[in-house]
Specification:
The chain has a domain at 4-124 and 238-256: Thiolase/Chalcone synthase (Peroxisomal Thiolase, Chain A, domain 1, 3-Layer(aba) Sandwich). Helix content is 36%, strand content 18%. It contains 13 helices and ten strands. It has helices at residues 26-41, 66-73, 91-104, 129-133, 142-148, 155-165, 170-190, 215-219, 250-255, 281-292, 309-319, 332-335, 339-357, and strands at 4-11, 15-16, 50-54, 82-85, 110-118, 239-249, 262-271, 301-304, 361-368, 372-380. Helix 3 (91-104) crosses helix 13.
Length: 381
């Protein structure tokens, strides 16, 4: 099987709901990273064979195949097509998988994997508004009801169920959140993200990290529901952002004089309990490790999406992972989670952290709506 290489990886800073990026059209956000990716890699953009872009809420400004509109908005060649995909929060990680699979299969040589989400402009849940307006079961049909009944299906309930199943406490969650903010703030101050970020609208740094937060401040927040351990402090932030990576074959690397930065080592994904919803990273990681022949201790850096603190804490417990090697520069609790862009954001962070530290293996995994997860292992070259 042919090898697939990451030869470019770039992202916008992740903006907050009311921050500097709130009024930028999502097609322009996507266009910004696509143009920057072309400029940084020096690739002939007309040689790109497809643009695969993750986006979760594909309505309003994010409708009509935003992969295509973002590419054209960037002023890039009309001969290059684009397709928009939705694997919920893992959409742009799945874009990386699809791009790598196209290259590994030998059917394509240069593919862009990207993601965008403008959560200030297109709120989470917008894509199901039509179903609710028409009185349809939100958002499931009769077959779902026969299988799972009428119980609540939500990421919030799923996170609380994980708290209970894994025996976590509110203090556990808040300590984890505090550490995420500490690591993120330290990384921002040290400039660890500067190389990977394409500044836009005068913003060059991620907006979400709170260096002044404390356990005392978190303790004063009300739980999302009475009796729950979850508060807003232990959940990912509503965000705005975009990301883009260029995946190339060995032949394309030689033909276009590109520089490989990481090899796509292993791809895995799985389904999991849709009621718990957020547990998928555990079996997905186990599957990826089994396929790769590696052990968790062989992984130098892990980026696991901090949708909620219990997702990472449960994963660490079951995998036996060293917390020091997991989200070493903070995660979505501090840095934000622009849904369809996050997979690409995490992969971009992972590539740059492997380069910064000289480490070899990186793992990325994230929970996804419907009870799913992707896991990707890359090797720095």
């Amino acid at each position: 099987m042919a090898e697939a290489y990451i030869v470019g990886a770039v992202r916008t800073p992740v903006g907050t709901k009311k921050g500097a990026l709130k009024d930028i059209h999502p097609a322009d956000l996507g266009a910004h990273v696509l143009k920057e990716l072309v400029d940084r890699t020096g690739v002939d953009p007309s040689a790109v064979e497809d643009v695969i872009m993750g986006c979760v809420m594909q309505v309003g400004p994010q409708s009509l195949d935003i992969a295509r509109t973002a590419w054209l908005s960037a002023g890039l060649p009309e001969n290059v097509p684009g397709v928009t995909i939705d694997r919920q929060c893992g959409s742009s990680q799945q874009a990386v998988h699809f791009a790598a699979q196209a290259v590994m299969s030998g059917t394509q040589d240069l593919v862009v994997a990207a993601g965008v989400e403008q959560m200030a402009m297109v709120p989470m849940g917008s894509s199901v508004a039509m179903a609710m307006e028409k009185g349809m079961p939100f958002p499931y049909g009769e077959g779902w009801g026969e299988r799972y009944g009428t119980q609540e299906i939500s990421q919030f309930r799923g996170a609380q169920l994980m708290v209970e199943k894994w025996g976590l406490t509110r203090e556990d969650l808040e300590k984890f959140s505090l550490e995420s903010h500490r690591r993120a703030s330290q990384a921002i101050e040290a400039g660890y993200f500067d190389r990977e970020i394409a500044p836009i609208a005068g913003l060059a740094k991620d907006e979400g990290a709170r260096p002044d937060t404390t356990l005392e401040k978190m303790a004063g927040l009300k739980p999302l529901r009475d009796g729950w351990a979850l508060t807003a402090a232990v959940a990912s932030q509503i965000s705005v952002g975009a990301s883009a990576l260029l995946i190339a074959s060995e032949a394309a690397v030689k033909q276009y004089n590109l520089t490989p930065r990481a090899r796509i080592h292993t791809l895995a994904l799985c389904g999991s309990d849709p009621v718990y919803m957020l547990t998928g990273p555990i079996p997905a990681t186990e599957k990826a490790l089994a396929k790769s022949g590696l052990k968790i201790d062989d992984i130098d850096v892990t980026e696991i999406n901090e949708a909620f603190a219990p997702v990472v804490l449960a994963w660490q417990k079951d995998l036996g992972a060293d917390p020091a090697k997991v989200n070493p520069n903070g995660g979505a609790i501090a840095l934000g989670h622009p849904l369809g862009a996050t997979g690409g954001v995490l992969m971009t962070k992972l590539v740059h952290e492997l380069e910064r530290t000289g480490a070899r293996y990186g793992l990325q995994t994230m929970c996804e709506g419907g009870g799913q997860a992707n896991a990707t292992i890359i090797e720095r070259v």
